[in-house]
Specification:
The chain is 68% helix and 0% strand. It contains nine helices and no strands. The longest helix is centred in the first third of the chain and has 22 residues, at 3-24.
Length: 199
């Protein structure tokens, strides 16, 4: 199977699964439901996933797809600072409106105890590649200070996003994740701006 077709099949399974988890709950969603909703086959499902639990770690795939969807809009945003805030607003809006809080909690708890791959920290993900590109452009344009490396800024930004999601989970989603992040992230990023760009 060509790589692109394989990615599309896996992506359809992941998207269908998370939509069903959100609409009818994890426990009430069967593998047969996911196969039907994704328009794939049982063989395809088991080629990519050992079972329903294995899909919990696939949320990072869904997040990366959202970033790919947003990529064309980045060229319309002048500053790297605003590009990062735009990506965050859109992703956190998606999380609030289409990802079950219970499953998000489950994902974070499994990532904390797993001895295997930690998908949220995988630096080859679209998420990290886009962050590095935006931050690097920001340094070249004199927006972000070169006192910090691209990796240091990327790590702080990603850590802040994970912390915001973790706290939102701990608080049982009692406040708007998107709105609160819109207050916190600019303060973090402001610390990496050059003196003339500081807000």
């Amino acid at each position: 199977m060509p790589k692109k077709a394989a990615r599309n099949t896996k992506s359809r399974i992941v998207s269908a699964a998370w939509q069903l988890f959100y609409e009818q709950g994890y426990e009430n969603t069967t593998i047969e439901d996911i196969i039907f909703e994704s328009g794939t086959s049982k063989g395809s499902f088991y080629h990519y996933f050992s079972g329903k639990d294995a899909l919990l770690s696939s949320l990072s795939i869904l997040f990366d797809e959202k970033y790919e969807e947003l990529r064309p809009q980045l060229s319309k945003i002048a500053s790297s600072f605003e590009r990062l805030l735009f990506l965050n607003r859109e992703l956190f809006g998606m999380i609030e409106n289409s990802v079950s809080l219970e499953l998000l909690k489950r994902l974070y708890s499994t990532q904390l105890v797993t001895k295997s791959e930690k998908h949220l920290l995988d630096r080859s993900r679209t998420y990290y590649r886009m962050l590095r590109a935006i931050i690097s452009e920001g340094q070249k344009s004199g927006e972000f200070s070169e006192e910090f490396s691209v990796s240091e800024i990327e790590k702080a930004y990603a850590m802040c996003e994970r912390a915001l999601i973790y706290d939102w989970c701990l608080s049982d989603g009692e406040y708007s994740l998107r709105k609160y992040s819109g207050q916190i992230l600019p303060m973090l990023l402001n610390g990496f701006l050059t003196k003339k760009r500081k807000i």
